[in-house]
TrEMBL record:
Domain named HTH tetR-type: residues: 11-71
The keyword Transcription regulation appears for this protein: yes
Tree of life domain: Bacteria
Short name of any one Pfam family annotated for the protein: TetR_N
PROSITE patterns per the UniProt record, alphabetical: HTH_TETR_1, HTH_TETR_2
UniProt protein name: TetR/AcrR family transcriptional regulator
Keywords: DNA-binding, Transcription, Transcription regulation
DNA-binding region: 34-53
Amino acid sequence: MVTAARGRPRSFDRDAALDKAIRLFWRRGYEATSVRDLTEELGIGAPSLYSAFGDKQQLFMEALRVYDERYGGFIDRALADEPTAKRAAARVFAEAPERYTRRNLPAGCLIVSGDAGTTSTEIAEHLRRMRDNKVDAFAAKIRTDIAAGRLPADIAPRALGRYTMAALNGIAQAARDGVTRAELDRVAEIALRAWP
């Protein structure tokens, strides 16, 4: 009887697998992505998926964190780098159309659309908090500018922060719907004009 020799186990590139999972969730969202979809995309069996990442929800949470660092993050960088809230808003509005329509990547934003249709209150709440944190960050920078006299005192910081993020979320969704970058650039220019 001939027995097959065991081959050396193939190495598993966890980071590359996570990037594939990020892109799959980005294209389909949390709810529409099944464990089977993930195992097929990553080229591993379900036991290996669970061993490497935990369950689907744990994988999605990690995917969101890494997505924000690797593919997102431009809003946080603009808020940290720019001296005023308006300059930060101008920068994100200038960058968003290009970022949401990058070649070889899914269109739109995982943080904006990742919870579409989900029945998981935990996933929906987590993404809502992520989006609200961006509103809070803009509102804080706006408050600083009001205190410094760079913006009028009668501005509602949270409302202006919410407007900014709502406009960006709309640009992301429009990109997902196939709107061209040129049109999104014009939308972003109009959105910035609403700033005082």
